[in-house]
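TA notes. Do not distribute before section.
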Amino acid sequence: MITHHNASLMHAQYYAGLLLRADQLYDQGGAHLEDGLRIFDDNWKNIEIGQKWSAKSADFDEAAASLSSEFPERGARCLYLRQKPAERIAWLEVALRVAHLRGLELVEGVLHGKIGVALSEMGDYKKAIEHYSIRLELAEKLNDLEGLGEGACNLGILYDSQDMLEPAQECYQYALYVAAKISDSKITEKTTGNLGLVYLKLGENARAMECFEQHLRLALQNGDQWSEGNALTNLGIACLKLQNYDQASVYFHESILINKKLGDLDGEAKNLGYIGTILGATGDLDGAVFTFQERIALANKLKDGRGEAIGCWNLGEILVRQKKYRLGLDFLYKCIEYEKSVGDPAWEDDLKAVRTIEKTNGNTEG
């Protein structure tokens, strides 16, 4: 007779297998990528149930402990696309505990790196650095060159997000050195794109474009459509900075096609924001309003407070340009309320700017 425990174990094992299959197909790229995501989406609820049961049973069942440590890696690519950072961390922390108890230092290093990425995406840079440091220490101890390259790249992303461009550039250059040493095109692909973003901030637009074009070539070569979309977006940003609006629009729209294919709502929302900026810059204010409204709706669906606030600010500015002052000011204030709630120092300058608009136009109908 099959017990409830055994039935739950069999259920978890089956859906862990489907998760692995989905990720393998995704990793093959091309037409297989969509098949992988379809398997993942169709079985997502049961995958969640299997992981949750494994995590709860890990302390008293070795098979469940093994599964709980394997779930995040079995579906790494699909999970990154579908889970929010906090959800990824919950799965990864369970796996990390099991790996630590079993003395699997190489696995521990990988998991610390993934937790650091998720924390960095959430803006918790202090904790992210702690995990990145452990990732790099273990990689050095174990002579894990792939871990050193990947860890250095992720640390560079963290520095870049805080506008610490010199250490970010040093991290990226070291990651590229390691990637060349072990012929790792994936690390090269990711690092090259991120190095381009540093050059863009430094105003070295030609070097940035070279990086983004190489990133796109490598993404196409590796069959990584998510990365391809990211490269297209970065090329669009570079063209936007150069006020080459037509070419920028082409890149953003090509990227959105990939976002839609992958169900990447976050990427789609960001691309809509850039397209709205182009429409505003070229005088299509009605088009910009519609596009920013779409951007806000997607951010709201994703429960992305920061993305929604940015969309509100952009929409508010366009509405003010249309002389719809009251409505525009409402959206601008929504952004400021969010900035103040999360301790973003930009709220004070933004408040001054809005009050100037209000003082000048506040009594105007609209």
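Switch to the second chain here.
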Amino acid sequence: MAAPASRTRGTRALRIIQSEDQVERAPLVSPGTSGYILLLAEVDRRPPWLPASRNKRSVLTSAKEHSRALLRNPLVRGATVFRAALIPPGRGALLERRPFVHTAHFDVVVLIEVNAIDSLARVEADEAFRALEGELRGRSRLMHEVRAFNARSMGPVDHSRKGVFLFNYFYADDREQNLAVWEYTAGWFHRETGLDNSTLLVPLDPAQVDYTVINHCRWDHYHDVLPSLLLKRSFRRFVLASFEANDTAAMPILYRLA
């Protein structure tokens, strides 16, 4: 593998990994203007592919009920509950050198889309939201609430039908470098897995959570994405190497609709 070159972008230089064949950048569209609230919960200690505990099953049932109630709020465009299904390969080696970063193990996620960033506080004051947040916080080992905006987009993520959903929790020493390397590597996923949707979320308050950006996207089936992650050498030589060269660590988790 050739030594990485540098290109100035943001506050740090984006270090370019020379791939064996040229990877074109993914086609991006204008980011949406919605605000987002992510409720990230660690409920079970067991791996996500094992049967859920009684507590987790109850949490998921309650979360769906409260989310349906929240949809009656005209400011809310969507409220979707996800359960973790699989942790794929791709966790960054940088995490070993940044022990202060919490490694993501969120097995229940609620994603709430709000009509505008300015409306987030009013949605958080909704009785249904307070019940949802309280339920998750009270019955989880760990729970984060993250306000976010959409910084980059490959197209909207369809939550209306089943599929394989990714939340990829990134940590980077520099957020602008994180955004740049995501843009640089997203083309690989577009080409190798047929990915045509992605909502890249950036926390409004960096002090809320360790993650600099959180990528959310969807495929129809596991076989659309897993073979590329497991079998294609370019995933390690180009994607993971690009993250490593740019002091960025990915923490991907695959989810199903709850």
